[in-house]
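Exam revision sheet. Question 4 asks you to relate a sequence to its structure. Input first:
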Amino acid sequence: MEIKKVALIGAGAIGSYLIWGLSRLADLSFTVIADGQRGERLREKGLVINGEPFRPMVQGAEETGPVDVIFVTVKYGALSAILPAVTALTDSRTMIISLMNGVDSEAVLEAAVGKGHIVPALLRIASHRERGKEGIDQVTFKEPQGIRGLYYGKPAPLSQRDEVQLEALKAFFARTPLLTHMSRTIESDIWAKFLFNIGQNIPQAIVGCGTGAYADSEHVRFLKERLEEEVVLVAKAKGISLHTAILEKWQGCGLYQEREPCRAPFYAAGPGSPPPYRN
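Answer key, structure tokens:
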């Protein structure tokens, strides 16, 4: 399986990383799916990414037709609205990669197009978008390094279709400047990202503080730890492992900067926990 035709739904701060990377493949049919005023603005003005102007192909899903890979990077509130576009872009061989925050966009997409299309994934990148002069979107990000970047994989056991899809993606990504990692623990990775987003973003938003408050204030740290504990319990109920090695993989790698480590007892690995994962 060779990936020749790719579509992106969601040309925002996250989607711009893909535009930056995939627009450099001259032999790739790459389309940004956008309609209405958003589509008109992108066609007319393009966007600027890290100071470099980009003018990707922009058109509707029906006009584009089925593709090999669909990347979905919309805000969660827009997910239901783009399902008809996803359906129009999907045929029997299409792979769908959601880089949305949260833990259930894959299930929503699978319900719309059927089984076998979803490749679970996540993206760790610091990216910012703002409307610049003349209404042109300006996106800036620090190019991912090390353990940051795009993670993708399939839960075991892998079917023959799974293996073909992963090998195709591996070969495809190798042709791009995107930093990617194939993960054997992708479901746990997605939940670990969710755990840290919930545990850190919510207290900061409510209290109006920075990350240093988790070390300075026992009260803010209490909120963080209780929220993370709840995510661990929900994940466990769904059969998702968030053992120590998975959490340390994300917390100890510079993705989540803290001035002192979390000491919550629920991080302790129980009997039968898998050995530390190394990519």
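Marking note for examiners. Confidence is low (pLDDT under 50) at residues 253-279.
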